[in-house]
Amino acid sequence: MIYQINNTFVETNFMIGKIIVENEQNGNIRAEYGKDVLNKLSKKLTNKFGTGFSRTGLQNMRLFYNKYKNCQPLDSNLSWSHYCYLIYIDDERKFYEQECINSKLSKRELKRQIDSSLFQKLLLSKGKVNKQKVLELSKKGQIISNPTYILKKTYIFEFLGIKENKPLLESDLEKSLTTHLSSFLMELGKGFMYVGNQVRITLDNNFHYYVNLVFYNKILRS
User: Fold this and answer.
1) Distance linking the first and last C-alpha atoms of the chain
2) CA of 97: how far to CAs of 80, 83, 202, in Å?
């Protein structure tokens, strides 16, 4: 039922965008200079149907149609909230679409992946940019074929809000990462689950160690 509602909502917004472009703008990407089409439509539709037809909303619908009119059918796994982020991307849009589908990203997770330039980081993770890799990522998204695609060499922890030049104790970093655990797991990659901090590990029944942070990866089973 939810999927049906979502699909209908997405398709409706696509058709509204089509009507704006084809009927109100004579097939042009934008209206003629001086014709305030979106504002006039927003007032007219709001008066007739109520909320949901702001100028920004109609602008997104118009852009949605312009970006996807040659890419039908629309994917039922993506919500209108997802598309509102995807329409503002060009070259990497297909990549992020596949990431949403493969990893079941929420709109918040999608936004963070875009803001943190996941596509560019994956391309550069092996050194210089590989044109074949660019093509593969843009069409299929990130495909997990071996552990190196899950484990990263470089991590970006901008969500901690730590100043770059500020000295940081290991204990402070651990505390901050635990507080921001949800964002931290998203940055680690696919399949990670938090086990605990200061987990006791005993070797040979004599040596006791406390591991700062322990994670389990359900994909790697380790």
Assistant:
1) 37
2) 12, 9, 44
Span 81-97, average pLDDT: 90
Mind spelling out the 3-state secondary structure of the chain?
Answer: CHHHHHHHHHHHHHHHHHHHHHHHCCCCCCCCCCCCHHHHHHHHHHHHHCCCCCHHHHHHHHHHHHHHCCCCCCCCCCCHHHHHHHCCCCCCHHHHHHHHHHHCCCHHHHHHHHHCCHHHHHHHCCCCCCHHHHHHHHHHCCCCCCHHHCCCCCCCCHHHCCCCCCCCCHHHHHHHHHHCHHHHHHHHCCCEEEEEEEEEEEECCCEEEEEEEEEEECCCCC
Predicted local confidence at residue 80, as pLDDT: 93
The pLDDT tens digits for 40-66 are: 899 999 999 888 899 999 999 999 999
**C-alpha closest to that of 109 among 183, 181, 3:** 183
Which amino acid, residue 62?
A: R
Residue 113 contacts residue 69 (beta carbons within 8 Å): no
Q: Which two tokens stand for residue 89?
A: 């991307």
